[in-house]
Amino acid sequence: MLFRPLNSGNGLFVFAVVLLLVFIGTFVQFKFVRLEENTAALDGGKIVSEAKIARLQNAYNNQLAEEAKGHTLKRKASQNDILIYNRVPKTASTSLVNVAYDLCKRNGFNVLHLNITGNIRVMSIADQARFVHNVTHWEAKKPGLYHGHVAFIDFEKFGSSQRPIYINLLRKPLDRLISYYYFIRFGDNYRPHLIRRKHGDKMTFDECVKKKQPDCNPENMWLQIPFLCGHMPECWEVGNNWALEEAKKNLLTRYLLVGVTEQLSDFVAVLEATLPTFFRGAVQHFKSSKKAHLRRTNQKLEPSQETIDEIQKSKIWKMETELYEFAIAQFEDVKRRMGKGKDGLVYDKGQQFMYEKISPKQAVSF
């Protein structure tokens, strides 16, 4: 006979072989389906690895935000831990500095006042070198905010690989001069009992201008330009056009931010958004603690229009005003890129960028 029935032993063997073949076929088909699905995902740009990285990034950003709110963010020392505020006198610098002193313990940074002998605005080249070395090597005082009435110091000039962050405030030149004129006669509400060097002189600024006295000489306005220009002798040469251009260049390339006294609240808001290590919580503190007008000059009188017209004829007023208006233009551009609240103050809109199209692609495992 051509056909014989299989015995029970052979039947079980054949059944096992058939079952194995069915299993292998099913497994292979499943793998092909998975391969097609992943290929389609790759072709459509929906990469599993990218989605995973995006989720991890969002989670990390959220974690940073929560840590910042709780003031538990831990940082390693870096060159950005050095902030220098070379304060121009009579620009509301005391108000800003006192906010920093109030926040330093909470935010975990140090504040140090640079006191130069004789209250001069420039250092010898040897003292500049010492200052650069001290600031960059004093690890125990990092993060550190250094402030003082001193001209811009170029750290790179001294071979330092660390370049601190510079900030400053400017004020309308004539307003600053008038404030200083009355300050040295009548003092201010910050230290009302301190006798100033012109104490007892009751001549008004208008009278001073009419009599062409030295204290109201327009050349006394030459201060904001040299503060941003630096320590070169040309910077302190009254009316030097190169000094004005150098001050502008430094404002653009060496200063993180230069604000104006008339917009002090916005300046604080931008600092908090940009430098949270130092200024986290500054806006709320600035509002609640009434630091906006911490130091007011006593008995300051507004000048007459005749006095204003006379001062504005000066080349120095025009040059200092040019720098001031240049600073405003830059600061306004910074503000335009931020949000604006109902109270009119600028605020940080949060991270407005993300990462995508990441290469090389992470291998997809089956």
Automatic annotation (TrEMBL):
This is Heparan sulfate 2-O-sulfotransferase. The keyword tRNA processing does not apply. It is found in: Golgi apparatus membrane. Belongs to the sulfotransferase 3 family. Keywords: Disulfide bond, Glycoprotein, Golgi apparatus, Membrane, Signal-anchor, Transferase, Transmembrane, Transmembrane helix. The chain crosses the membrane at residues 12-30. One of its GO terms (molecular function) is heparan sulfate 2-sulfotransferase activity. One of its GO terms (biological process) is heparan sulfate proteoglycan biosynthetic process. It is a single-pass type II membrane protein.
